[in-house]
Amino acid sequence: MAKALKKTARSRAAPKRAKVGRAELLTLLDFVRYAVSRFIEAKLAFAHGTTDPVAEAAFLVCEALHLHPDQFEAFAHARVTAAEGKLIVDLVHKRVATRKPAAYLVNKIYMRGLPFYVDERVIVPRSFIGELLESHFGGDGEAGSLIDDPSAVERVLDLCTGSGCLAILAAHHFPNAAVDAVDVSKGALDVAARNVSEHGLGEHITLHRGDLFTPLGDNKYDLIITNPPYVDAEGMAALPPECRAEPKLAFDGGPDGLDVVRRILRDAPDHLTPDGGLLCEIGRGRGLVEEAFPELPLLWLDTEESEGEVFWIAAADLR
């Protein structure tokens, strides 16, 4: 009788996670398909370096197998070992159960093909500015270039640097520039310091802790880049669980989302060289920015996946 009761109790307990048979999933593509189905079933949100369940599934599979995302196609039909398969499935289930961004689960994200360490101390990088540095600051006299000669840029400032990814991309793109990177968060700067060291850029990038321009004195820059907090109160209330796992400080831009942007536009003229300029990401707040600053001739820039979410303004126009 006691054995029968124990058996009945076990049968009524919460179901255990289903095991995935090795005969069912063999190749990288098989595991990607499995992950995509689980992600769609769980109605996950995707906005952290990957924009859809397929891209996120491929990212997790590659990370579990120590492959660069660019290598996925070459190994798509390769078979996965039993140990590797278990690791992939565990990551997929953890992504569904925790609703944390995939980048936090593997402590890595890629921007413009470069790997960066990330954890919960920083927002997961997904700025469009990295692409714009390549498309609009290329020099060689091409149409749309905002700075004619990248090698002539001497000083760059990255405000609200977070993980340091934009400062590092800027250091690569402007080879002769000294880059200052500022953040108010000690935890974020610890992550940035790790990334700067891993990319071997300690002699080119200096990290500063402080509120925007405060720790910089009278320094002036040929280029200021920034991806500041710009989510308004309504947007903060509607953030999906994935975004709620990230630091609130990196999102919250005040009631209308422009609290930090206003301060940057106010103080940037004092820190730009005469021929310099400001590149600022604002998300979907273009209308609010234009309404708040109708006198500024902002140039809105598009990328492959965005329209009018980043603006450029020359130092002369700010003054």
UniProtKB/TrEMBL annotation:
<dbReference type="GO" id="GO:0032259">
    <property type="term" value="P:methylation"/>
</dbReference>
<dbReference type="InterPro" id="IPR007848">
    <property type="entry name" value="Small_mtfrase_dom"/>
</dbReference>
<keyword id="KW-0689">Ribosomal protein</keyword>
<dbReference type="InterPro" id="IPR004556">
    <property type="entry name" value="HemK-like"/>
</dbReference>
<feature type="domain" description="Methyltransferase small">
    <location>
        <begin position="153"/>
        <end position="234"/>
    </location>
</feature>
<dbReference type="InterPro" id="IPR029063">
    <property type="entry name" value="SAM-dependent_MTases_sf"/>
</dbReference>
<keyword id="KW-0949">S-adenosyl-L-methionine</keyword>
<dbReference type="InterPro" id="IPR002052">
    <property type="entry name" value="DNA_methylase_N6_adenine_CS"/>
</dbReference>
<dbReference type="GO" id="GO:0005829">
    <property type="term" value="C:cytosol"/>
</dbReference>
<dbReference type="Pfam" id="PF05175">
    <property type="entry name" value="MTS"/>
</dbReference>
<dbReference type="GO" id="GO:0003676">
    <property type="term" value="F:nucleic acid binding"/>
</dbReference>
<dbReference type="GO" id="GO:0005840">
    <property type="term" value="C:ribosome"/>
</dbReference>
<dbReference type="GO" id="GO:0036009">
    <property type="term" value="F:protein-glutamine N-methyltransferase activity"/>
</dbReference>
<keyword id="KW-0808">Transferase</keyword>
<keyword id="KW-0489">Methyltransferase</keyword>
<keyword id="KW-0687">Ribonucleoprotein</keyword>
<dbReference type="InterPro" id="IPR017127">
    <property type="entry name" value="Ribosome_uL3_MTase"/>
</dbReference>
<protein>
    <submittedName>
        <fullName>50S ribosomal protein L3 N(5)-glutamine methyltransferase</fullName>
        <ecNumber>2.1.1.298</ecNumber>
    </submittedName>
</protein>
